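Tip: read the tokens left to right.
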């Protein structure tokens, strides 16, 4: 999807080099090319210029660039108080926007919000997911609002939690809140001979794997672009306690027997929701699925005094230490969730918005104790902050989709 633009851009960059061909002998050209890309053989680079393989935005490094300024002001009213790290005086908050993600073989530019509004008139974009998708939604809203002078209407179309229409452009962004994508509600034993009762279940949450949450079912006929996520709630034993209040999965209105573990339930929900979206979305709608946003609890989980006190991005070694599935650390669900997502999205028409690895470095970018909770918030992100980069990637992929 990103292929067209990525390659055109690479082509452009290479153009001056190729025009030198007639002037220079082969060896010096080789020297020029290889000195620009010392780690990649010439044949491979030539292949990349002409191939349709897209740029891999997920591998790269964070570069400190003090000249970079935030995309929007922290007075943007949509910023949830606990995420407003400048207002709550988190010490490194002013530095957060001065880091730039540099993919290995291409650039990820900051998108131009005014150009974005002008080229996406009569368009509605829906974020469907948990509070991490709301974090990304707020980033996009504040970025666009900072350049837009016309009226903005706040409303709740298609059961959205909130939506804003930039009237000058007839451009709408909405947030639809859903934790599991599928509908769920509390369940308690009622029928002595019921399948779950017979197995000893008394209390729990009924999750209907084949029924979308009412908060977003109508969103599919409303939006032109959709960005889904789910993940955090599947590994949230504080709500879905495996003993006291387990997830109990239902399909076609009947309990699934034998009962499934949450990770198996996630597979079943994705198996139903992905084709559902493909069938019910507006014709031509562009659908994204965002990968898991990493948490950065160190020294314990959120309810065990875990914290995130870093003031700069992690090194690649620290990232592997913290997130490798083999280490089974506190935040291991990050990559586990993605394994489920990748499996479910294979062969679908969804575009994968892969923000996981680039975000894994950013242990410094959470509200931590500035989140205003009893415990550190090492899960959500400060705004302005890293979800601004997620939106740069989203816009990059969206534009290449329109052009492709
Ligand atoms: C505004 O945009 C929506 C799509 O988001 C479209 O359905 C509607 O017709 C547009 N309204 C006008 C007045 O152009
Ligand atoms: C991972 O660690 C948790 C406790 O932190 C433990 O309950 C679980 O069994 C471990 N899983 C594996 C596969 O080792």
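Filled-in amino acids:
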């Amino acid at each position: 999807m990103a292929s067209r633009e990525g390659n055109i851009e690479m082509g452009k960059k290479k153009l001056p080099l190729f025009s030198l061909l007639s002037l220079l002998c082969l060896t010096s050209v080789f020297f020029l090319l290889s000195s620009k890309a010392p780690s990649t053989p010439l044949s491979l680079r030539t292949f990349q210029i002409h191939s349709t393989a897209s740029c891999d935005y997920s591998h790269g490094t964070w570069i400190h660039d003090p000249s970079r300024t935030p995309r929007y002001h922290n007075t943007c009213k949509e910023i949830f108080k606990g995420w407003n790290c400048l207002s709550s005086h988190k010490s490194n908050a002013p530095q957060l926007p001065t880091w730039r993600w540099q993919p290995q073989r291409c650039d990820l530019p900051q998108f131009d919000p005014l150009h974005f509004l002008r080229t996406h008139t009569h368009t509605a974009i829906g974020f469907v997911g948990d509070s991490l998708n709301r974090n990304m939604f707020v980033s996009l809203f504040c970025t666009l609002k900072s350049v837009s002078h016309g009226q903005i209407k706040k409303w709740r179309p298609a059961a959205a939690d909130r939506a804003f229409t930039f009237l000058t452009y007839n451009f709408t962004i909405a947030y639809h809140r859903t934790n599991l994508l599928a509908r769920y509600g509390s369940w308690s034993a009622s029928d002595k001979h019921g399948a779950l009762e017979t197995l000893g279940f008394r209390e729990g949450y009924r999750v209907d794997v084949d029924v979308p949450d009412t908060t977003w079912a109508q969103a599919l006929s409303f939006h032109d672009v959709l960005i889904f996520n789910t993940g955090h709630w599947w590994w949230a034993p504080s709500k879905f306690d495996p003993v006291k209040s387990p997830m109990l999965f239902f399909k076609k209105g009947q309990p699934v027997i034998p009962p499934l573990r949450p990770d198996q339930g996630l597979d079943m929900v994705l198996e139903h929701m992905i084709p559902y979206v493909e069938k019910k979305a507006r014709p031509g709608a562009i659908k994204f699925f965002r990968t898991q946003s990493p948490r950065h609890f160190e020294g314990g989980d959120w309810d065990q005094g875990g914290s995130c006190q870093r003031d700069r991005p992690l090194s690649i070694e620290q990232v592997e230490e913290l997130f490798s599935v083999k280490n089974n650390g506190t935040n291991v669900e990050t990559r586990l969730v993605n394994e489920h997502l990748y499996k479910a999205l294979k062969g679908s028409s969804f575009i994968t918005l892969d923000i996981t690895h680039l975000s894994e470095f950013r242990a410094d970018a959470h509200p931590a104790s500035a989140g205003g909770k009893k415990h550190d918030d090492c899960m959500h992100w400060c705004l302005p902050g890293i979800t601004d980069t997620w939106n740069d990637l989203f816009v990059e992929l969206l534009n290449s989709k329109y052009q492709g």
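DSSP finds eleven helices and 13 strands in the chain. The two ends are 7 Å apart (CA to CA).
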